[in-house]
Automatic annotation (TrEMBL), chains A, B:
One of its GO terms (molecular function) is monoatomic cation transmembrane transporter activity. One of its GO terms (biological process) is metal ion transport. Pfam families: TrkH. Its main location: membrane. The chain crosses the membrane at residues 6-28, 71-95, 126-146, 186-207, 228-247, 285-302, 347-368, 407-427. It comes from Alteribacillus iranensis. It comes from the Bacteria. Signal peptide: none annotated. Keywords: Cell membrane, Ion transport, Membrane, Transmembrane, Transmembrane helix, Transport. This is Trk-type K+ transport system, membrane component.
Amino acid sequence: MKNLLTPFRMIIISYVLSIFLFSILLWLPVSHKPGIDLTYMEALFTSVSAVSVTGLTIVNVSESLSVTGVIFLALAMQVGGIGIMTLGTLVWMLFGRKINLSQRLLIMVDQNQYQFSGMVKLMRGIMLLALAIEFVGALILGTYYLQYFETAGDAYYQGSFAALSAFTNSGFDITGQSLIPFASDYYVQFIVILLIFLGAIGFPVLMEVREYFITKERHYNFSLFTKVTVTTYFFIFIIGGIGIWLLENGMYFDGLAWHQQLFYSMFNSATVRSAGLSTLDVSEFTLPTLLFMSSLMVIGASPSSVGGGIRTTTVAVMFLSLKSFALGKNDVKVFGREIDPEDKQKAFMVISFFIFGLFTAVTVISALEQGNQSVDLIDIIFETSSAFGTCGLSTGVTANLSTGSHFVLMALMFIGRVGIIAFLFSVKRKDTESHYRYPTERIIIG
Amino acid sequence: MKNLLTPFRMIIISYVLSIFLFSILLWLPVSHKPGIDLTYMEALFTSVSAVSVTGLTIVNVSESLSVTGVIFLALAMQVGGIGIMTLGTLVWMLFGRKINLSQRLLIMVDQNQYQFSGMVKLMRGIMLLALAIEFVGALILGTYYLQYFETAGDAYYQGSFAALSAFTNSGFDITGQSLIPFASDYYVQFIVILLIFLGAIGFPVLMEVREYFITKERHYNFSLFTKVTVTTYFFIFIIGGIGIWLLENGMYFDGLAWHQQLFYSMFNSATVRSAGLSTLDVSEFTLPTLLFMSSLMVIGASPSSVGGGIRTTTVAVMFLSLKSFALGKNDVKVFGREIDPEDKQKAFMVISFFIFGLFTAVTVISALEQGNQSVDLIDIIFETSSAFGTCGLSTGVTANLSTGSHFVLMALMFIGRVGIIAFLFSVKRKDTESHYRYPTERIIIG
Ligand SMILES: [K+]
Ligand SMILES: [K+]
């Protein structure tokens, strides 16, 4: 029995239980607006999407959910976003129990951390920091929203949900049309982009930055993880913005002022890397832009963040490995450190599994949607990448898909959020050390 | 100077020189039928396609090329297919020079071999075996074709070209419509499938099988390479056949007799893994089938064969690694041997590079073909996979693409044939051993 409950399995079970809990809460009549009924399937899809902080929907949240329903939704986003295990830790601490090794291990695994020491402190720190950021974000957006909404209650309700949706990168909205009403309000967009960054850059990064400011050390040593993920995150953000601008220059952006082009490019590059909020109807973009955005959704955000995808570090290790391999070197050096071979191995697993899963899902959905005239191949590729990268951007076809396709998307959102490493480890029976060895024999590759 | 001419670079230069040589030969008026003119671009594309044994064309070979042109084309396929370095070796041997270490290294690298000893013997063996198989194939098909063609000359001309095209997996045809005229002649299809197998299964496998029959040892030790690649090749062949049948059952196959369904499934599963000959118009297949076939083209054939793609062993190592990783094991065992970590590393490089290249190419071509109404996304995905996997199957849009897209396809065919490992190594300046080490630091992946 003990062997069956490995840390990875417990995490997966926690996610599954949360999904079922919230699916039932969202299914209850009290969660719906008068006269609206959700099928269990709709409630389940919404719950999977919320707990995996994806944001794809088959119901119109603003038209279907009551205030109670929206609060359940926000809770699901919080539980899924800041991490089931982080919340678990808080509960453990509230009950005053000393965290033992096996629970530490559990947390370490969920946040994919390697250092044991100070883990409890780290978890509490992450939780407090996340809540603080969300609170400040809600305050800023809510106060600013006073000009847009009739009552202060409405303004802070909308502002809080937007801040939560942005920081947890969950991409849900209660405006009914994402951030499109704020398409020319650059202040809102700037705050939202900032919140998206803070959620997607990785909790360890936030903790280190906080420590940097607290200690005021002149030579604070940021971890290799922080250096790699921050550099990669912003490098791809810039590439993404320039790429979208180049592809839509003269197309969708034709005739727009420079600042509109700048903000559309910037906002889309930020949101496509896991957030899922939008300031325009992405289905208006051209085919190459949608393909380019699909690849950005596949890349996603930092590990140990609210974002999904194959993650920044995986992509960084891939390119660094290709470069050092082409140069005939065995070691991968970056920022005065070497990448551990095991991490290279993990990056390989993640990329292989992700690409295989993505391609299989696209093929299966295209088979299930034979004869569905409202769905093109690019829609399937876009929605699939969006689900697996837990991004939530959509060309608008999710609701038109069949139940079979909805199950495929739910599976992708789930695995995308749990993380491929955790998912792969969850199937293993126990730590197995090989008791025997075979001779090694070379084979020809590629 | 010596450092600049690494073995990998010499191979690439040989391919480049062959391509230019044959592009000029195919451009000459003597290569064209009366009244037909090829632009240099058309000749270049044909040459790249032939030397890389791909088979994509922007000209109708049977209508444009004279007998001289067809002979040049066949020579280009032979040079590219059986291996520039194998031919090089033959030339060296004809001149009676003893092959020195650096030339041996060159051959080893081209055929991606690890064992030095007996390399020359192996090369001569491969060459003779290849020519023998082609000769027997030409004889069988030519003789059988006597019933179809008016003169014996025509029959053997057509039969020889078909045998060469099948064995080198180059996919060119001089019938004007591939093997569609033989769609209900299962004897021709059976012989062609056999020739495709022999070319795509890998030269080392053929040599070992020959040795097995010569030595008549009861316990002949086949190499790990042979076991892995033969198993994977036929396993995916069966999966491919069943997959195509499942996806087209009730669609394209609707109303066909069981034997027609069987042969269409089998032939397509065989041809899609690098051969490129066809017995039907693949554009008639449904979207999921075309996606499934694209993934089979990406997988391709064995290394050290006439086929392309990421190759069987790469796929096998990927799945075996995923399995052993999920089971928590560090070593990858198969057939009583362990996979060398360096080969795992190579598989990672090949997959990463291939997927990145493929996605970039699809996006770039879709940007170049904006407004080209005759091209759908699935066509772009299919042609791109076909070019990179040097398969040559086509939904028929290659000729409709712009010059920019043609250059992208040529680059893919070239890299696909040269092999990603060789391509990556060709950019390196010299074997570099790191003179310094950094401390290793773990980062979070996926
Ligand atoms: K999201
Ligand atoms: K081919």
